[in-house]
């Protein structure tokens, strides 16, 4: 089934997740514009999510079907938000 | 527990179960399918009654409806429908018919009953989850109908529940009715999410050996696609329903402009689901008639692959058209053209499917038992529905037609063919497999002709009423001078509606009579090819004595050189039989 | 190819056209639907926030400290649940149960901190009726919290059941429970910056 001996230890990933959490919080006080801060903070969150997906949920060892099952709703939800922008965000 | 010599399937589990475990809390997909069918047919009666009251009010406004004098005030006033109850009627009619009839009938009943059989599986992937899905929608039905009995009455903001009307109880005067409506819908969504997981996992993973995707019966393709569409589209509306419920109960501001919210957001969230939802209803209806055509033309369906790709294309496109319901709602005008384009585009795969079905008739040895009559009726009436949808899909034309009876007639010409003609075709066709008995042909033909004729008489006039300016959801339209001339049309439609409702009586009689006294059915009374006909009628618990092997495509009828005009998927190649 | 249509209706070894167990495919489908639920809600939040101009004044009142603690708690619980899964795969029943119990405890801690956070906010008069930002805040964290609660119940049930005779039949479910729990964690990984940071 899934990997029992992961290439990178679960502990290591946990440490990285904590580090990324610290970076994300620190960005609040960073001397950058608000827009840049928002982009960076969400990049950090995306990396954290990616680590959980890849190393804890073992997505890389799942069949292609699972990638599709995750990617399609994600892209669809993002597409919905984009199409709604003129109506909801920029009334 | 199991004797050592038990066969792998049909292991007589039925005799060991108590009445409750066998008929009520069953995990067998066949019983669950029948439970869904019973629930949906019962809800169809209730929905039909709401329709009767609506049509009476439209034809003879503010006059008492015969037989309804017992309804207490303030719901009705000695048989007269007041405006408030009219709003509740049209709301509950739509909600009941879409969510508690169409979906449980087409998906819950036929999907559950047929998918494991057609793929050669002993049951669904998750039988207990399946059982839970039925009891969830059963409970949801009770919650919904309870709305009729609470102070303020049933939900009355339209089946679309637009905000801000629906978001503040003060605007409708209905408090618990709409709250219960939201809870019932949320439960129904949960029920079909559970069911959908079963459909998809079973069709993907539990197919018999040899059953590749391109050998799947088209019904399975449509059911699974419908399940995927539902799964992907309902999420935002689940969020939206929670948001609306909170607006109504705990003072949040999501959809109330007065509190800083955006009413249009509700419409977007609703229709993002609402449009794929109509394909969730349409596709299984098509799936049923696609199974029936080859059997009664005795030739393969024309363009199997084209139909499969059209089903998938319809599914994908269905996510890109939703704002055509909102052309006059105040959306950004720049959205109008893209959505018009996608809406016109979606008629292409639909047309491919229709043309393929029509082409399937050419050169066939066609017979017209009742299932075939309903299937052909579905095709013809759906064509009218599809074509009238094109008018509505153009934003400029929609400005005049939105919210009129043209829309009402259009969607009845798409929903009714799918649910009623398609669903009834399915009942007549698979009744032998479900219950081991044949239905009466004469009663069936009477049922078809009355239903077909009266249905068209109800709704064709409504296209004209709509073009004449008759708005939807209006209590007593003929009170307005410019609509007075439509009184005759409304009365004609109501007479036809009464005939339509009465015309279901032969079906009810036929159904129950045949259950007990119909001619016993053989394994394969229609001489069809798909896997469900490989086992007994009805199938035993576990479905198949041993797992069938699939040797060929599902529609190999009238093969040149074959001894019979059908060659089942599960029959070994004739040469191997030494013929 | 055999198909186990027998007593338990357990299809763990039934015909697997794709080579994947049914339960795993089922859980991934379910998570796909959940992505749409939270995606719709989060998308609506982002759009409403843009329309409202950022809600900086409202967001000054959220308790970032508690949220940071909760993030640490939830991420750690993701770690413990994957350890539980790995132990279950290695057939180490006691270790699997131990780590599942840690996951349950951490989940409960999350809910306790969240409850405390809610009570502080309500004391200050910040309720769901306090405006659109707070409407979203309570709804999103509330729905997420509900998912955490359901996850705790699932995890705890598994912890209990694994102590009994059913262990060989249910140890593969540690993976499925873990997948759901990780999903709940990933949702929080995005909710946290959306509501508390950016």
Task: Give an overview of the whole structure.
The complex is a heterotrimer of chains A (91), B (579) and C (198). Chain A is mainly α. Chain A folds into two domains: 1-57; 63-91. Chain A is built from three helices and no strands. Chain A is flat and about 45 Å long. The mean pLDDT of chain A is 87. Chain B has 579 residues and is mainly α. Chain C has a single domain (22-197), classed as Four Helix Bundle (Hemerythrin (Met), subunit A), CATH 1.20.120. Helix content of chain C is 76%, strand content 0%. Mean pLDDT of chain C is 90; it is low at 1-14. Chain C is elongated, with a radius of gyration of 20 Å. Chain C has helices at 22-52, 56-59, 64-89, 93-123, 132-161, 167-170, 173-197. Chains in contact: A-B, A-C, B-C. The interface between B and C is large, with 58 and 46 residues.
In short:
Chain A has 91 residues and is an all-alpha fold.
The level 1 CATH classification of chain C is: Mainly Alpha
The tally of structural domains of chain A comes to 2
- Overall shape of chain C: elongated
- Beta fraction of chain C: under 5%
Return the string of H and E elements of chain A.
HHH
Number of strands of chain A: 0
Radius of gyration of chain C: 20 Å
Percentage of residues in strands of chain A = under 5%
Quaternary structure type: heterotrimer
Q: Encode the helix/strand succession of chain C as letters.
A: HHHHHHH
Q: In one word, what is the shape of chain A? A: flat
Structural class of chain A: mainly alpha
**Chain pair forming the biggest interface:** B-C, 58 and 46 residues
How much helix, percentage-wise, in residues of chain C?
over 70%
What's the total helix number of chain C?
Answer: 7
Enumerate the spans of chain A where pLDDT stays under 50 for 5 or more consecutive residues: none
The number of distinct structural domains of chain C comes to 1
Care to count the β-strands of chain C? 0
Query: In CATH terms, what is the architecture of chain C?
Result: Up-down Bundle
